[in-house]
Design brief:
The complex is a heterodimer of chains A (483) and B (104).
Chain A (H helix, E strand, L loop, with lengths): L4 H9 L5 H19 L2 E4 L1 H12 L11 E5 L26 H8 L3 E6 L33 H8 L5 E6 L5 H7 L2 E4 L19 E6 L2 H11 L29 E5 L10 H16 L3 E5 L7 H16 L19 H12 L2 H14 L4 H25 L2 E5 L15 H5 L6 H5 L4 E8 L7 E7 L5 H14 L10
Parallel strand pairs in A: 2-3, 2-4, 7-8, 7-9
Antiparallel strand pairs in A: 1-3, 4-6, 5-6, 5-10, 9-11, 10-11
Chain B lengths: L7 H10 L9 H15 L34 H5 L5 E2 L2 E2 L13
Antiparallel strand pairs in B: 1-2
The chains are: A alpha/beta (483), B mainly alpha (104).
Chain lengths: 483, 104
């Protein structure tokens, strides 16, 4: 296997392959497979080859020199379009690059294109994309997860060496789990959000999809850090996440959540694989401790108040005047112009969340919904603070289900929301979380299963080391789908 | 079945506040879906929040100030590049103020 980020980079550095050659191979594979997978919204063939050529000529260098990387289409890029997979922004061309994109390019990465997502990152399957769903490379009748499903599908099909997504309630970790990848949601403030199209500003974070933990550590080295253009990015030093990665955590204590043990809706095969992973950690010398997250039961309900409230405010900017879709219907006044443009430009899920948020923030309901949910946020944060007194990381399944069939949940929004049961509390508490492969289902086409590790704020270094300890003892991360 | 939270009229009102011209035939479906989401959210009321301060964010954030100096900004052309309609250096919208002469 020589398709990982570090392997690709080292192969280019040692001249085993040129960046142009690798980029050409990647573009050819995209041309062959993307029509069926719909992972990319846009492919930057010409520009990718130009950047690759500059790497080969020594004009560009850095720790990612020459490797093909895909970017979720809700990160602004001055090349091509930034659509958020919405009709609203179908023709939007951002005037600048997101900081994460700028840092990747400064490190020599070859960006090959922009990947599909649930419209404005709202969803868990990419079925809410205005451009049609992406497919799961392990079984193309199934979803890749979401909202960063295009980034997960592209990497799982080897249409790039790594990809970038965003995670507001699980949108990196859940698709990573469903596609057999490593996906990391950093601590809020670890990575600059400048140029990430805002969905829920107190929850959104940018993070990597990779085949393994060292690749994730490498990408975190590149994209982390304070940015004067994002005042919520943390002025905290970034450690070298690769440096201590192979060193196991001394006296490792893994927290298993009491309240999750008898959770309804958890697939038995997922539970079995995660239990097996706990056994593996035990054999590796970890101590398993039971921790309690009593308020985690309110996680999804609190999330589906907080996130829609912030979304209804953030998405108020789409007015059909400054940029984005404008109705061609005759209108009598400016409010009608706004209202028709928005109704035509947004898909149903985006409309639902805007209306939930508008309702919850409206006069007479604000305290009962928004303020109340903010109190639950405080309780959920407190639960984690207490748990981390007794353990180094908390271990849970990432998703209660392996990849589901396209269309299976799309008619029932609430059943889709319940996919986020293990992932949303991490965003609410602003802590880092990582998903890594821990098994496969016994379906005719076996589907990946992921486990999630959660750590204290700015504890990415330890989180990655704990993940690496498991990864080295197993070979789930080395499997690839047949396409 | 719990007490109904939303009805068609309330959803119509919320859509108006949200500046979403939802076609009449779609309203019943949205009402049903939003109702089921809000019913699920109702469980938050069971949580014991006595004495808990609402937390807008789990990371303690403070205002960040900078020197008030001119910095590079987008040009007018860049700002207008994505606009649906423009007129010179302006965004163009339909007439928004009523015409008194035609009022009668």
């Amino acid at each position: 296997m020589s398709d990982t980020l570090l392997q690709s980079r080292d192969a280019i550095a040692s001249k085993k392959i040129s960046s142009v050659e690798l980029t050409k191979q990647t573009l050819a594979r995209i041309e062959k497979l993307n029509p069926s997978l719909n992972a990319y919204n846009e492919v930057w063939a010409e520009r990718a080859l130009q950047v690759a050529k500059e790497v080969d000529e020594g004009k560009r260098s850095g720790v990612l020199a020459g490797v093909p990387i895909a970017i979720k289409d809700n990160l602004c890029t001055s090349t091509g379009k930034t659509t958020c997979s919405s009709k609203m922004l179908a023709n939007f061309k951002a005037p600048y690059d997101a900081t994460a994109v700028r840092l990747l390019e400064a490190a020599g990465a070859v960006i090959v294109g922009k990947t599909n997502l649930d419209e404005f990152a709202m969803g868990s399957s990419t079925e809410n994309s205005a451009f049609g769903p992406s497919k799961n490379p392990w079984d193309t009748d199934r979803v890749p997860g979401g909202s960063s499903g295009g980034s997960a599908s592209a990497l799982a099909a080897s249409l790039c060496a790594a990809s970038i997504g965003s995670d507001t309630g699980g949108s990196i970790r859940q698709p990573a789990s469903l596609c057999g990848l490593v996906g990391l949601k950093p601590t809020y403030g670890r990575v600059s959000r400048y140029g990430l199209v805002a969905f829920a500003s107190s929850l959104d974070q940018i993070g990597p999809f990779t085949w393994n933990v060292p690749d994730a550590a490498l990408l975190m080295n590149v994209i982390s850090g304070h940015d004067p253009k994002d005042s919520t990015s943390a002025p905290i030093d970034v450690p070298d996440y690769l440096a201590g990665l192979e060193r196991p955590v001394e006296g490792l204590r893994i927290g298993v959540v009491k309240e999750y043990q008898a959770l309804a809706g958890l697939d038995p095969q997922v539970k079995a694989a995660v239990d097996q992973a706990i056994e593996t950690y035990k054999k590796l010398g970890a101590k398993i401790v039971e921790v309690s997250l009593p308020n985690s039961a309110y996680g999804i309900a609190a999330y589906y108040v907080i996130a829609p409230c912030e979304a209804s405010s953030n998405l108020a900017r789409y007015d059909g005047v400054h940029y984005g879709h404008r109705t061609q219907e005759p209108v009598g006044d400016i409010v009608e112009l706004f209202s028709k443009s928005r109704a035509e430009g947004f898909g149903d899920e985006v409309k639902r969340r805007i209306m939930i948020g508008t309702y919850a923030l409206s006069s007479g309901y604000y305290d009962a919904y928004y303020v109340h949910a903010q109190k639950i946020r405080a309780l959920i944060k407190q639960d984690f603070d207490n748990a981390f007194k007794d353990c180094d990381v908390v271990l849970t399944p990432t998703s209660p289900l392996a990849a589901f069939k396209i269309g299976e949940k799309s008619s029932d929004p609430l059943s889709m929301y319940l996919c986020d049961v293990f992932t949303v509390t991490c965003n609410i508490a602003a802590i880092p979380g990582i998903s890594l492969p821990c098994g496969f289902t016994n379906d005719a086409k076996p589907l990946p299963i992921g486990l999630q590790l959660l750590g204290p704020a700015f504890g990415e270094e330890r989180l990655l080391r704990v993940a690496r300890t498991y990864e080295k003892a197993t070979d789930w991360h080395a499997r690839r789908p047949t396409l | 079945m719990a007490e109904q939270i939303l009805d068609l009229e309330k959803v119509k009102h919320v859509a108006k506040l949200a500046r979403l011209a939802i076609p009449e035939p779609q309203l019943p479906r949205f009402t049903e879906q939003l109702e089921s989401i809000l019913e699920y959210v109702e469980q938050l009321k069971q949580a014991d929040v006595a004495g808990v301060e609402p937390m807008a964010h789990a990371v303690r954030l403070t205002n960040v100030l900078r020197e008030d100096v001119v910095q590079p900004a987008l040009t007018t052309e860049q700002v207008l590049a994505n606009a649906p309609d423009t007129d010179g250096p302006f965004f163009k919208v339909p007439k928004v103020i009523g015409d008194d002469d035609s009022a009668g």
